[in-house]
Design a protein that fits this description.
Structural class: alpha+beta
Order of helices and strands: HEEEEH
Oligomer: single chain
Number of domains: 2
Shape: elongated
Number of helices: 2
CATH architecture of the largest domain: Roll
CATH class of the largest domain: Mainly Beta
Radius of gyration: 19 Å
């Protein structure tokens, strides 16, 4: 429990330091986010259900919200935490074959 409180305190410190920089540009780093790789102008912070989100100007000029952890705003590593798994077609077929074997439904060959 103590470690969780320390991590929350550190996140709060990073968020306060970031707020002092607003307005500024951020890059969407979460590969699963539809705006991955986009540079957006962030101008405010808003908490939604306790999760910090950045108020940003979207590429079409409209206002929007992006989770702070999906950007480089808090010093997150590229890809963001829990960015997920990205597979090409061949990788997806291989993953399916592994899952099917584990479930007992052997899949033979790369084309199945």
């Amino acid at each position: 429990m103590q470690q969780r409180l320390v991590l929350l305190h550190q996140e709060g410190d990073r968020l306060r330091r970031f707020c002092a920089l607003l307005p500024c540009e951020v890059v969407v780093t979460a590969v699963t986010h539809p705006l991955h790789g986009c540079r957006l102008r962030a101008y405010a912070v808003r908490h939604v259900d306790g999760v910090p989100h950045l108020k940003v100007e979207l590429p079409d000029g409209m206002p929007g919200l992006v989770a702070a952890e999906a950007t480089d705003a808090l010093g997150a590593e590229p890809g963001g935490t829990g960015a997920g798994l990205v597979l090409d077609g061949d990788g997806l077929r291989r993953l399916r074959a592994v899952v099917m074997r584990l479930r007992g439904g052997d899949v033979s060959g790369p084309g199945r």
